[in-house]
Amino acid sequence: MRKICVVITARPSYSRVRSLLQAIKDHSELELQLVVAASALLDRYGATDKVIEQEGFTIDRRVYMIVEGENLVTSAKSTGFGLAELATVFDDLKPDVVVTIADRFETMATAVAASYINIPLAHVQGGEVTGSIDEKVRHSVTKLADLHFVASEQAAGRVIRMGERPETVHITGCPSIDVAKQALANPDPGFDVFERYTGVGPRFLLDDGYVVVMQHPVTTEHGESRQYVEETLHAIHDCGVPTLWFWPNVDAGSDGTSSGIRAFRENHRPDKMHFFKSLAPEDFLRVLHGAKCIVGNSSVAIRECAYLGVPAVNIGSRQGGRDRGRNVVDVNYDRGEIRAAIEEHVGNGHMTPDMLYGDGSAGLKIAGLLATVDLNIDKRLAY
C-alpha cells in the first residue's frame, strides 16, 4: 500500500481536500497519513483539527508553527518553523507521496521539506492565477512538485507552459467542488446556524434572506487591511441585510482586518451582523447555498459559488486573474460601489451551476491516480 501524507494547514485547506481524504481512506491500495498544522490548530481560527476528528479522520501528527503577529515577518518565520518541523514529521512517517494544497505560505514549507527529503510531491490546485504573494507561492510549488492535480484545462495549460511534463499534469477538477455537489444534492441545512456554531453578535431571522461575508487581508497590501474591511462593513451595514460574517485567515494583515471588525462592532452595534470563526465544510456550503449573495475576497466565491450558482461580489485584487464564472461581479474597496453591486447582484437571483472547476468527482480521481501513477523525483523539464 502507498502511504499518502496530506498536510492540512488552514481552515480552507481542509474544505478543499475533504473528499480526497475520504477517497484515500476508502481506497484499498492507499494508506492515509494526515498532518494538521499552522492555523488549523488554533482556536481563534476555528480549531479545524477538532472538526477533522469529528468527521472521522485520525490525525497522525500536529505541527505548531504559527508565530504571533500576523505580519510579513511572522509569515516568513512561520514558514521557516514549518519547514523544520515538517522535515522531522516526514522523516518519521516516511510517506510515499506528500500532498500539498494551493498557495498559502505554509504550502511552501510543505513543498520544500518533502522535496529535500526526496519524497514525491503532489500539488493540488496549481496553474491558477491570482494576485498577491499567493501567485509566487503557487508557481514555486508547481516547480517543486512531481505530480500536478489541476482544476481546469486552463490551469493545466499554464503548468505545462511552465515546463512541467504533460504526463505529470492531470485535470481532475477541484476537490472542493465535491463537497459543493453534496451540499447541492441536499441543500436544506437542517439546523440553526446560531445554535450549532454560536458565534458573536445578535441573532436574527434568516427566512427572508441573508448574505455571507468572507474578507481576508491581502499580503501585498497588508497595511490597508483595516481600511479595506471598514469599507465593506459600512456597505453591509447600509444595505441593512442580515449578514453572516466569517473571520479572516491568518495571513499578514489579519490583525488589521480583525481590529476593524471589533471596532465597528463596538462603535455601531450592528443588529443584523453575526460573526463566526468557521463551520464544518458541508454545513458552511449549505448555509452559503441559501444566501442571496457572498461578499468579500475569498476564493470560495469564485470556485464553490460558481458551482452552487450563488451570486458573488468580489472586492479588490486578492482574486485578480483567477478564472471566474458568470456569478462574479468585481468591485473596488469603496462602500458605495460595494453596496450598489450587492443590491444589483442580489436581484439577479441564483444562477445555473457552472462546471468551471470540476463536476464533483475530483477526490476519487486523485485517489485513483495516487494509487497508480509512476512515482518519480527526477525533475526533467519538458522544454
Q: Top keywords for this entry?
A:
single chain; 383 residues; alpha/beta; Rossmann fold; 2 domains; 7-stranded parallel sheet; 6-stranded parallel sheet
Explain what this protein looks like in three dimensions.
- The protein has 383 residues and is of the alpha/beta class.
- It has 2 domains: 2-174 and 358-372, Rossmann fold, CATH 3.40.50; 182-346, Glycogen Phosphorylase B (Rossmann fold, 3-Layer(aba) Sandwich), CATH 3.40.50.
- It has helices at residues 11-26, 48-54, 72-93, 105-116, 132-144, 153-161, 175-185, 193-197, 225-239, 254-268, 281-289, 304-308, 335-346, 362-372, and strands at 2-8, 30-37, 61-63, 97-101, 121-124, 147-150, 169-171, 211-214, 243-246, 273-276, 293-296, 312-315, 328-331.
- Strands 3-2-1-4-5-6-7 form a 7-stranded parallel sheet, with helices on both faces. It has a 6-stranded parallel sheet with strand order 10-9-8-11-12-13, with helices on one face.
- Helix 10 (254-268) links the parallel strand 9 (243-246) and strand 10.
- It starts with a strand and ends in an 11-residue tail after the last helix.
Would you kindly provide a brief summary of this structure?
The chain has 383 residues and is α/β, with parallel strands linked by helices.
